[in-house]
Amino acid sequence: MMERIEWSDFEKVELRVGTILAVEHFPEARTPAFKLTVDFGGDVGIRKSSAQITDLYDKDALIGTQVLAVVNFGPKQIGPFMSECLLTGFADSNGRVVLAVPEREVPNGSRLF
After folding, report:
1. Count of Cβ atoms closer than 10 Å to residue 102 Cβ
2. Of 16, 50, 73, 111, whose CA is between 20 and 30 Å from 9?
3. Domains in the chain, CATH or no CATH each
4. In whole angstroms, what is the distance from residue 113 CA to residue 111 CA?
């Protein structure tokens, strides 16, 4: 059974939309991953993240894609890389990550509500 949370708990999570500006291979990662640079707009700014999405996504095709990410976690060291946000997604039937993206373009920094 899933744990029930209060509305105030959900309000603490900053789920924001950002646009991917740059993508690099992350050869030091244990599981194949990309290093991404994402623009979340004026309030949040530009953040970096590591994402294990190499199975379904082409590095160059990701540039310009809007994604949904948690931006208020503390930084997390992943090998030699410091991740500053957590991109969100869903596992498909083969366990590959499918990114959570807005259906239509919205302003960077828009908050999920």
Report:
1. 12
2. 50
3. 9-99 (2.40.50.140)
4. 6
Closest CA to 19 of 54, 55, 44: 44
Dist CA 65 CA 63 (whole Å): 6
The vertex-111 CA angle with 40 and 99, nearest 5°, equals: 70
Structure tokens given for 64: 């310009």
Residue 45 tokens read as 């700014």
Residues 45-76 as b or e (16 or more Cβ within 10 Å = b)? ebbbbbbbbbeebeeeebeeebbbbebeeeee
pTM: 0.94
DSSP assignment letter at 74: P
Closest by CA position to 78, among listed 43, 14, 31, 110? 31
pLDDT in tens, 61-95: 999 999 999 999 999 999 999 999 999 999 999 99
